[in-house]
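Morning - adenosine monophosphate inputs below, output right after.
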Amino acid sequence: MPFNKLGLMAELQRAVSAQGYERPTPIQEQGIPLILKGRDVLAGAQTGTGKTAAFTLPMLQLLTRRGHPKTCADNAPRALVLAPTRELAAQVGESVATYGAHLPLKSTVVFGGVNINPQKDALRRGVDILVASPGRLLDHAGQRTVDLSAVEILVLDEADRMLDMGFIHDIRKVLALLPRRRQNLLFS
Ligand code: AMP
Protein backbone atom coordinates (compact mmCIF):
# COMPACT_ATOMS: atom_id res chain seq x y z
CA MET A 1 0.00 0.00 0.00
CA PRO A 2 1.37 3.47 -0.84
CA PHE A 3 1.58 6.14 1.87
CA ASN A 4 -1.02 8.34 0.16
CA LYS A 5 -3.75 5.75 0.82
CA LEU A 6 -3.49 6.15 4.59
CA GLY A 7 -5.48 9.39 4.79
CA LEU A 8 -2.58 11.54 5.91
CA MET A 9 -2.62 15.26 5.14
CA ALA A 10 -0.31 16.71 2.48
CA GLU A 11 2.04 18.33 5.04
CA LEU A 12 2.70 14.93 6.61
CA GLN A 13 3.08 13.14 3.29
CA ARG A 14 5.67 15.74 2.32
CA ALA A 15 7.61 15.09 5.53
CA VAL A 16 7.44 11.33 4.99
CA SER A 17 8.65 11.66 1.39
CA ALA A 18 11.53 13.86 2.54
CA GLN A 19 12.63 10.97 4.77
CA GLY A 20 12.69 8.73 1.71
CA TYR A 21 9.98 6.38 3.00
CA GLU A 22 8.31 4.69 0.05
CA ARG A 23 5.60 2.68 1.77
CA PRO A 24 4.27 2.31 5.30
CA THR A 25 5.58 -0.48 7.50
CA PRO A 26 2.97 -3.04 8.67
CA ILE A 27 2.39 -1.29 12.00
CA GLN A 28 1.93 2.03 10.20
CA GLU A 29 -0.46 0.52 7.66
CA GLN A 30 -2.58 -1.02 10.41
CA GLY A 31 -2.22 1.62 13.11
CA ILE A 32 -2.47 4.97 11.32
CA PRO A 33 -6.08 4.60 10.02
CA LEU A 34 -7.30 3.44 13.45
CA ILE A 35 -5.57 6.24 15.30
CA LEU A 36 -6.96 8.80 12.82
CA LYS A 37 -10.44 7.48 13.68
CA GLY A 38 -9.79 8.32 17.32
CA ARG A 39 -9.61 4.71 18.47
CA ASP A 40 -7.51 3.43 21.35
CA VAL A 41 -4.72 1.22 20.05
CA LEU A 42 -2.60 -1.38 21.80
CA ALA A 43 0.28 -2.62 19.66
CA GLY A 44 3.21 -4.91 20.15
CA ALA A 45 6.12 -3.54 18.14
CA GLN A 46 9.87 -3.69 18.49
CA THR A 47 12.14 -0.71 17.89
CA GLY A 48 12.96 -0.64 14.19
CA THR A 49 9.43 -1.46 13.00
CA GLY A 50 8.49 2.17 12.41
CA LYS A 51 6.31 2.44 15.50
CA THR A 52 7.34 6.01 16.27
CA ALA A 53 5.93 7.26 12.95
CA ALA A 54 2.91 4.98 13.44
CA PHE A 55 1.75 7.05 16.40
CA THR A 56 3.41 10.40 15.65
CA LEU A 57 1.96 10.96 12.15
CA PRO A 58 -1.73 10.49 13.08
CA MET A 59 -1.23 12.34 16.38
CA LEU A 60 0.09 15.38 14.47
CA GLN A 61 -2.84 15.21 12.08
CA LEU A 62 -5.50 14.96 14.80
CA LEU A 63 -4.04 17.90 16.72
CA THR A 64 -3.79 20.03 13.58
CA ARG A 65 -7.34 19.29 12.44
CA ARG A 66 -8.83 19.94 15.89
CA GLY A 67 -6.92 23.18 16.44
CA HIS A 68 -5.88 24.70 19.74
CA PRO A 69 -8.86 25.23 22.09
CA LYS A 70 -9.08 28.85 23.32
CA THR A 71 -9.42 27.66 26.91
CA CYS A 72 -6.19 25.67 26.75
CA ALA A 73 -3.25 27.21 28.67
CA ASP A 74 0.09 27.66 26.87
CA ASN A 75 1.78 25.11 29.13
CA ALA A 76 -1.01 22.55 28.60
CA PRO A 77 -0.04 19.93 25.99
CA ARG A 78 -2.79 18.24 23.99
CA ALA A 79 -0.69 15.13 23.40
CA LEU A 80 1.57 13.44 25.94
CA VAL A 81 4.11 10.75 25.05
CA LEU A 82 5.67 8.89 27.98
CA ALA A 83 8.96 7.13 27.32
CA PRO A 84 11.19 5.18 29.71
CA THR A 85 14.61 6.73 29.04
CA ARG A 86 16.04 10.06 28.07
CA GLU A 87 17.47 8.55 24.88
CA LEU A 88 14.11 7.27 23.77
CA ALA A 89 12.34 10.49 24.76
CA ALA A 90 14.87 12.52 22.78
CA GLN A 91 14.48 10.21 19.79
CA VAL A 92 10.67 10.53 19.84
CA GLY A 93 11.05 14.29 20.21
CA GLU A 94 13.21 14.38 17.09
CA SER A 95 10.66 12.33 15.15
CA VAL A 96 7.88 14.71 16.20
CA ALA A 97 9.96 17.65 14.98
CA THR A 98 10.86 15.90 11.70
CA TYR A 99 7.36 14.71 10.80
CA GLY A 100 5.77 17.94 12.02
CA ALA A 101 8.18 20.19 10.12
CA HIS A 102 5.41 21.65 7.92
CA LEU A 103 2.82 22.04 10.69
CA PRO A 104 2.45 24.89 13.21
CA LEU A 105 2.57 22.63 16.30
CA LYS A 106 4.98 23.11 19.18
CA SER A 107 6.69 20.19 20.88
CA THR A 108 9.19 19.80 23.65
CA VAL A 109 10.95 17.00 25.53
CA VAL A 110 11.49 16.76 29.29
CA PHE A 111 13.53 14.14 31.14
CA GLY A 112 15.47 13.86 34.37
CA GLY A 113 19.20 14.14 35.05
CA VAL A 114 19.46 17.61 33.51
CA ASN A 115 18.66 21.16 34.68
CA ILE A 116 14.89 21.61 34.95
CA ASN A 117 14.89 25.37 34.27
CA PRO A 118 15.31 25.34 30.46
CA GLN A 119 12.44 22.80 30.38
CA LYS A 120 10.27 25.19 32.39
CA ASP A 121 11.07 27.99 29.95
CA ALA A 122 10.17 25.78 26.99
CA LEU A 123 6.84 24.78 28.59
CA ARG A 124 6.03 28.40 29.34
CA ARG A 125 6.60 29.31 25.67
CA GLY A 126 3.83 26.88 24.74
CA VAL A 127 3.54 23.18 23.95
CA ASP A 128 1.11 21.09 21.91
CA ILE A 129 3.04 17.82 22.17
CA LEU A 130 5.06 16.91 25.24
CA VAL A 131 7.44 13.94 25.26
CA ALA A 132 8.47 13.06 28.80
CA SER A 133 9.97 10.55 31.14
CA PRO A 134 7.53 9.88 34.00
CA GLY A 135 9.61 11.10 36.96
CA ARG A 136 10.54 14.48 35.50
CA LEU A 137 7.00 14.97 34.25
CA LEU A 138 5.74 14.58 37.83
CA ASP A 139 8.33 17.12 39.01
CA HIS A 140 6.92 19.62 36.51
CA ALA A 141 3.33 18.78 37.44
CA GLY A 142 4.16 19.24 41.15
CA GLN A 143 5.68 22.64 40.43
CA ARG A 144 2.73 23.54 38.19
CA THR A 145 5.04 24.23 35.27
CA VAL A 146 2.95 21.86 33.17
CA ASP A 147 -0.84 21.59 33.06
CA LEU A 148 -2.01 18.09 32.09
CA SER A 149 -5.73 18.86 32.09
CA ALA A 150 -5.96 19.31 28.31
CA VAL A 151 -4.34 16.04 27.18
CA GLU A 152 -6.43 14.48 24.40
CA ILE A 153 -3.97 11.80 23.31
CA LEU A 154 -1.75 9.72 25.60
CA VAL A 155 1.02 7.52 24.18
CA LEU A 156 2.88 5.02 26.33
CA ASP A 157 5.98 4.15 24.33
CA GLU A 158 7.83 0.96 25.33
CA ALA A 159 5.26 0.48 28.07
CA ASP A 160 6.66 -2.94 29.02
CA ARG A 161 10.07 -1.41 29.61
CA MET A 162 8.58 1.36 31.73
CA LEU A 163 6.95 -1.27 33.93
CA ASP A 164 10.21 -3.29 34.11
CA MET A 165 12.00 -0.13 35.20
CA GLY A 166 9.58 0.33 38.09
CA PHE A 167 7.67 3.30 36.69
CA ILE A 168 4.24 1.88 37.52
CA HIS A 169 3.65 4.23 40.48
CA ASP A 170 4.77 7.28 38.53
CA ILE A 171 2.57 6.28 35.60
CA ARG A 172 -0.43 5.85 37.90
CA LYS A 173 0.17 9.32 39.31
CA VAL A 174 0.40 10.79 35.81
CA LEU A 175 -2.81 9.04 34.72
CA ALA A 176 -4.62 10.56 37.70
CA LEU A 177 -3.74 14.04 36.39
CA LEU A 178 -5.13 13.43 32.88
CA PRO A 179 -8.69 13.95 31.66
CA ARG A 180 -10.72 10.74 31.85
CA ARG A 181 -11.84 11.14 28.28
CA ARG A 182 -8.85 10.77 25.98
CA GLN A 183 -7.36 8.54 23.29
CA ASN A 184 -4.85 5.97 24.60
CA LEU A 185 -2.09 4.48 22.46
CA LEU A 186 0.05 1.81 24.05
CA PHE A 187 3.15 0.33 22.44
CA SER A 188 5.11 -2.50 23.98
P1 AMP B 1 11.17 3.05 15.03
O1 AMP B 1 10.68 1.65 14.98
O2 AMP B 1 10.09 4.03 15.21
O3 AMP B 1 12.29 3.24 16.02
O4 AMP B 1 11.79 3.40 13.56
C1 AMP B 1 12.90 2.71 13.06
C2 AMP B 1 13.49 3.38 11.83
O5 AMP B 1 12.66 3.14 10.69
C3 AMP B 1 13.66 4.87 11.92
O6 AMP B 1 14.99 5.19 11.57
C4 AMP B 1 12.70 5.45 10.90
O7 AMP B 1 13.26 6.60 10.30
C5 AMP B 1 12.52 4.32 9.92
N1 AMP B 1 11.18 4.28 9.28
C6 AMP B 1 9.99 4.53 9.87
N2 AMP B 1 8.98 4.36 8.99
C7 AMP B 1 9.54 3.99 7.81
C8 AMP B 1 9.00 3.65 6.51
N3 AMP B 1 7.68 3.68 6.28
N4 AMP B 1 9.87 3.32 5.54
C9 AMP B 1 11.20 3.29 5.79
N5 AMP B 1 11.77 3.58 6.97
C10 AMP B 1 10.96 3.93 8.00
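Note: Strands lie at 41-43, 79-82, 107-110, 129-132, 153-156, 183-187.

O.
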